[in-house]
Structures are given as structure tokens and as C-alpha cells.
Amino acid sequence: MPARDAEPFPRAVLDVLTAAADRPVFEHGTRVVTGAEMLDLVARIASGLRGNGIGPGDGLALLLGVDAGAFATILAGHVVGARVVGVRPGLTDAQVRHLLGLDIAAVVTDAGGAARAVAAGTPVRLTVTDLLAHSPEPLRCRGKLGDVARLIHTSGSTGAPKACAQTYAAMTGAWTARPESWPPAIRDLATRLDRYLVFGSLSSQVMFEYAILTLTAGGTIVVADHPADAITELRATARVITAPGLAKLVAAQKREPADLSTLKALLVSGSPLTPDRHREALDVLGPVLFHGYGQTETGMISMATPDDPPGTVGKPPVDVEVRDGELYVRTPGQASGYWADAGESAEVFVDGWVRTRDLGRIDDDGYLRLTGRARDVVIVNANLHHVGPIEQVLAEHPDVAEVYVVAVPDDETGEAVHAFVVPKADRVPELGELRELVTARLGAACAPSRLTAISEPPVAPSGKPDKRQLAESATTA
Fold first, then answer.
1. Among 6, 140, 236, 296, which residue's Cβ finds the most Cβ atoms within 10 Å?
2. Quick one: where's region Disordered (predicted)?
3. CATH classification code of 377-476
4. Fold classified for 179-373
């Protein structure tokens, strides 16, 4: 952690851009932005924000796309010490209104963001174009360590998105822009970030922080307007991908291989990989998988490199503490709580620890293995059974590529297990086979009473498999 009289985040990022004055740091189509040009964008936007009265502690909402101006606006918001709230695509109008009601002093939009703000019934206050018209001022980072630097909202799968509050102290103490603090897995990853794809939303915690890591490692952030084909078309060396997205990529490569010769790192996030799926991806794509485990509330907890055992999420770094069982963790960049939600904060943020509500253990070799979700359960005859172990057993069946287990109402047992299965090679496993497999390992109460074959799971706006949609479809059926 820097001395208290040193400038807070994003000073380390600005120093990286200063050192990168003449090299490309951001590329979008034919537009290439150097470090010096990015600093000029940040300085102009920060000047415009201050000119509009935005300073330390003020709420600043951003409804922006993915381009150099959006990246500069995020940094500028932190330069002036604001509490930055990125509003990502895919939210309903009601969810956007909720986020823009979190004590927001100003809203910054581009053309697309303005349309979303109007649709949500929120007046547009500032635009990136207007802010860039201001003259640049010297970049002095004014954030106060104890102030909230950003609110990172969760997926909203339970209704209104929860806003995780991360302080300037936490962002300043995080390792992303400080190579001397990089864990071994990140040091390995950093050598592969020559051309890192960004897409979807820069308000994504994962997307933004790997972008900062890319700059620090000497690479270029490359915008992918159409990420499906961008690895080949843009000669990308790295990109973020969800577990379902990885499954699609592997299947496509097996069916009709594309030229992925530039690819060095796939940053898998959002949900665990089964050991079989992990091994298959390594076999088909080569040693490029970096399987990260973290949460909005914690930031990165651990990361598996291509050399780590499939089925693990790597070894937690030395500055990350993990308690086995229902996992409690402490990380340098963790959130301090949920904004304006003391009740939920008390449930998750406990005595300096973050309750992940995931289940896992550290094995004898120091690797973290995830075994399920503490709240992802089915209650049969008043007995609680975790879904994670059931999914792991079902995934061992030779005809199962992916499996998602949900609890459904049952007149006799209260709840029962419903298994949604993505079959291998179009052969749907028999329900009886799956029941026998689970019964032998976990008991009859955990055996699926119903089976539905699907080609792929529905995906939530966060990019994760949406088990709530699966549960609703099972209940309706």
C-alpha cells in the first residue's frame, strides 16, 4: 500500500500511461491512441467534470459504450475523486433507474447511453463530447482513501442489483497496476497480454481490471465490436470468456477450426469448469486457459494457469486469505459493503472477511477446489443437499457435456432435483442411468427426479448461466 500522502488510484495507471507516451495503448478500428493521447483525453474530461462541480465524494454515473472516450472517462471520474457507478448494458429500465438513484450528482453518456437514460426516465446531464471540449488541466488525483471510489453492481438476478462499494484505499492497494505485487499467475498472464480484447462494457469489473493489467504489462487494449470472430480478425492474444462461451468455442474449433494462432490467453470467468471440460479445452485450444475465481465483492481470489491441475482454480496469492468449507476470504481490493444496504452487508461482510457463499477447500498441494454454492441447495424431506456435488457426479457420466441442477417443488418430498443436461454427441443420457450414478455416490435423495436435455443454458446479462431461468422453466413445466 502506498504512503498515505501519495496520490491514490488512478495515479499508478496515469504513471503507466506517461511511460507509454509514444506507444499504442488503445485501438478501435482505424483509431489508435497512444499513452500521451489517452492522458490528454483524461485531463480534458477531468477538467470538464470539475467545471461541472464534480469532486471528491460525488456520485458519477456512466452510461457509456466501449471506446477510448469511455475508458478515459472512467479514469477521469477517479481523478476528480468521484464515486463512479458504471451502468452496463442488458439491465432493464427499472434497474437503470435504481442505479441512477444511488445518490448520483451527474450522469455522463455517449449517444447510446443517452438513449438508455431517456428510456429509463432519467435526464441526461453531461456527454463525453461536451467534456472533451474543456482545456486540459494538470492531473492531480483527488480521491480520499476512505471515500468510496466505485460502486460495482451485481447481476441483479434477485431483483435490484446490489452495489458493492470499493474505497479508494482498496483500489490503491490492489495489485493490477503494480508489477511488484503481481502474484505468480498474473506474472505468467502478463506476458501474454500483447493485444487484449475489450467488448460489452468497460464498467465490467473483470473487463476493466484486465485492461489496466494490459497497459501495465506493455500491451494494447483492442476493441472488439463483434467478439465472436475478433481473435482471428484483430490478431488478439487474450480475451475474457465465460464457461458457456468457452464450451461454444471448443465445439466450433472441433467442428470447423479457425486460425487462433495469435491466442495466448483465454481468461475464463463467471462459473467453474468441470475437470473434463477444462481438459477438453486445453486439448483443443492448447495451453491458453487462465481460470479465474473471484466475486464482485472480492475481486480476484485465485487463478489457475495452463499448468495447474484441471478442476482447480489455482493457488490463492500470499496476500489473499481463504477459510475452507463455506469460503470466507480477505483480499487487498475487496469491497467494504453494499451501498445503502446495511442488512445485506452484515450478512456478507463479517469481521473483515467476505462470505463468498461458495463451498470449497484447499487441497494438500495448496490448490483451491470449488465444490458448490452454499445457497445453491435442494431441500428433500426437510434435509438440505448442496447442488454442487450433485452436478459434479452427473458431469462424470460419459454422455454429459454440461449439467445444471435446480430445485423444483415436489408434492411428496417438498423439493426434488431437476437436472438440465447438455448431452455429448447428441446422445441424451437415460434418467435411470443418472439416478443410479447419483444414488450410488450421494444417496437417493440427491438423485434427479426429472431430466431435460438442452443445447446450451440460458445466459444472464452477467454472462453466467442463468439457473433462475432454468428453475422457472422447470417449475412452469
1. 236
2. 453-477
3. 3.30.300.30
4. Rossmann fold (3.40.50)
